[in-house]
Specification:
By secondary structure, the protein is of the alpha+beta class. It has three domains: 7-154, no CATH class; 160-238; 280-342. 18% of the residues lie in helices and 37% in strands. It has seven helices and 22 strands. The chain has helices at 7-24, 103-108, 158-161, 174-184, 220-231, 278-282, 327-342; strands at 44-45, 54-61, 73-81, 88-94, 113-121, 128-143, 148-155, 164-165, 188-191, 218-219, 233-238, 241-246, 253-260, 265-267, 270-276, 285-292, 299-304, 316-321, 346-353, 363-367, 376-387, 391-400. Strand 21 (376-387) and strand 22 (391-400) form a beta hairpin. Helix 4 (174-184) runs antiparallel to helix 5. The longest helix is centred in the first third of the chain and has 18 residues, at 7-24. The radius of gyration is 24 Å and the shape is globular. The chain starts with 6 loop residues before the first helix and ends in a 9-residue tail after the last strand.
């Protein structure tokens, strides 16, 4: 098991993980291999065709695959999201002066990049590794008495977050800005080309994004996130690549089951929690975006839903002020903000034995409760943890509104 935790720890990890997960899901294998449907097809039942697979974990110093491996990793927890925020890592290592990773080495680092791979191996088969995190370490905490060190890190979007800018972008499109900034920060850019010049987002021949909300210094990440929202795009960093693509409307679809089997719940998830915001459910949600053209001095308001009469005070009203938008941009912004708000009406959270296929741009279909909770949810956060003590687990969070709720009308 070259490249895993250690030989002894890896064996313990395998045994404990299989035992813990087998106990958690009665009658279902812990490491069922999901084969999700795409394009609106039949949702996959996690656990329909179970296969036992061995969880694996390794860590390296640096971004490249050839970086020095730290073989004393004990645990890793990676939290991914779909909220224009950095993914985060918390990893624990055993201090090992003999291997070159003792107290002195950890204390002398001024800049440290960690790469973490997780994997699942078939019995008798070769490991199948997947890089789940590459990022810069923000803090290191050592415990000499226990012989451990804990690192906390953000993915490489931190390079944009930590960089201030007041720069102008003359006659460039949003996708071109992403490519320019990615090159400066040492990342590759995977983008869907856009055609609208950035200056068009700031009317009256503004040739820079130093107008409007960028008249003061902002971070490069805030700039990129603003361009993504204007375009209706998702923005995220994975590994050493920044992605800039239209917001996912489809994604893979996974099926989570929770039903009454008579003697107890029949399920393929653990610790299912369901939450509903009744304020959003019972009240009509209205978003108003107020803007104006700087040189013309003319103000206007766009609402979502677009036919809303603002003179009536019914429902919940959210007002956003953004200068220098076109009327079309203001309408799109209002629709986007409203959609984000009403999606928080119903939340679903559950735990599952870990797999590496689910992403924060996929969906989960809950079935079997025989209630209005049975519907599709957008995955917005995944926390994967792999350790000797806890095995390989993931905590999934999703959200959506009820089709029949008042707030969604």
């Amino acid at each position: 098991m070259s490249g895993t935790i250690t030989r002894g720890a890896a064996l313990e990890l395998e045994t404990r993980a299989l035992e813990a997960n087998a106990r958690a899901i009665s009658g279902r294998d812990a490491f069922a291999s999901p084969a999700p449907a795409t394009g609106g097809g039949q949702a996959d039942d996690w656990g329909r065709e179970p296969r036992v697979r061995r969880p694996l974990l390794r860590a390296r110093v640096g971004e490249a695959a050839g970086g020095a491996e730290i073989q004393t990793i004990i645990s890793a927890e990676v939290t991914s999201n779909n909220a224009y925020q950095a993914d985060r890592l918390r990893a624990t290592f055993r201090l090992s002066p003999r291997d070159g990773f003792g107290l002195r080495w950890w204390g002398d680092q001024r800049k440290l990049i960690l790469s973490v791979d997780m994997g699942l191996a078939e019995p008798g088969g070769a490991p199948r590794w997947q890089t789940v995190f590459i990022g810069e370490v923000d803090s290191v905490e050592t415990n000499p008495a226990q012989g451990t060190v804990e690192c906390q890190a953000r993915d490489l979007s931190a390079r944009f977050v930590d960089a201030k800018t007041q720069e102008t972008f003359l006659n460039q499109t949003s996708s071109e800005v992403v490519q320019v900034l990615a090159g400066r920060r040492g990342l590759r850019a995977d983008v869907t080309p856009t055609t609208t010049l950035v200056s068009r987002y700031y009317k009256d021949d503004h040739e820079s994004v130093s107008g409007g909300e960028f008249r003061r210094a902002t971070t490069e990440w805030d700039l990129l996130a603003s361009l993504a929202r204007n375009e209706g795009f998702d923005l995220w960093v994975l590994g050493t690549t920044i992605y800039f693509h239209p917001a996912a409307k489809g994604g893979k679809l996974y099926r989570a089951e929770w039903g009454d089997g008579g003697a107890g719940p029949v399920c393929n998830v653990m610790n299912l929690r369901l939450e509903r915001d009744l304020t959003l459910a019972k009240n009509h949600v209205v978003v108003a975006v107020r803007s104006w053209h700087g040189k013309k001095g003319r103000g206007f308001t766009k609402t979502s839903p677009s036919n809303t009469n603002l003179q009536k005070g019914d429902g919940q009203r959210f007002t956003v002020v953004r200068p220098d938008l076109t009327e079309d941009q203001a309408q799109k912004l209002a629709d986007s903000i409203r959609e984000d708000i009403i999606k928080n009406e119903r939340l679903i959270r559950f735990d599952r034995p870990g797999d590496l296929s689910l992403t924060c741009r996929d969906k989960v279909q809950l079935a079997g409760t025989q209630s209005s909770w049975d519907q599709t949810y957008w995955v917005y956060e995944i926390n994967r943890s792999l350790s000797v003590d806890g095995g390989f687990l993931m905590h999934v969070s999703g959200k959506n509104h009820s089709p029949e709720s008042e707030g969604a009308r």
